Task: structure prediction
Amino acid sequence: MHSRSVLASLCAAAALLLPGALLAQEAPEAMIQRISDEVLDAVKADKTLQAGDVQKMVVLVDAKLLPNVNFQRMTASAVGRYWRQATPEQQKRLQDEFKLLLIRTYSGALAQAKDSTVQLKPMRAKPADDEVVVRTEVRGKGDPVQLDYRLEKTTGSWKIYDVNVLGVWLVENYRNSFAQEIGASGIDGLIAKLAEKNKAASGKG
Result:
C-alpha cells in the first residue's frame, strides 16, 4: 500500500509540473470553444461588462486569451522585414503596444456579447497539420460576428498567431500601414503611433 501511495504522489506531482502534457491533448477547435465560452460566460455574469466597460473587457480578454497567443510571432509578422532591424528594447515595446491594440480590437468584437453564443464552423484540417484555421461565429440578437483564428502547434499546446475580426485578418491588415509608418518615421515612430492610439482608446474607454 505504501508503494502505491508513493507512486500516486509522484504521478500527481508530475501532473502539476507538466501542465503542457495535459494541454497537448486539447484539440485547437476545442481550445477556441473553451476560451470563447469562458469569455462569454464572464460577460453574461457581469453587468458592468454588459454595460460596455471597455477597460474591464480588456482585462478579461487579456487574462483568458494571453496564455494562448504567440504575440511575438504576431508582432514580427505585422512589422515584417523591419522586425530584424529593431533592437531588443524596440521589439519589446512594439510587442507590448501591438498586443494592447489587438486586445482592444478583439474586446470590441465581444463588447455586445450579452445573450450570445459561439458556434464553431467545420474544420478544414488534417490531424498531422501544424497550422490550422478555426472559424467561429458569435451569434446573438444582431448579425453574427465573425471571429476566426490561425493557430500553430507548439510544444505542449496550440497558440493563436492571427485573428480575423469581421472578415479582416488583423496581422495582414496592419502590415502595410506599419511599413508605411516605419518608412516615414522609423521604428520609434511606429512605437509612438501605436502608443498614441492605445492612449486615445484608453481615454475613450
Summary: The domain at 24-204 is CATH 3.10.450.710 (Nuclear Transport Factor 2; Chain: A,). The chain has a mean pLDDT of 82. DSSP finds eight helices and five strands in the chain.
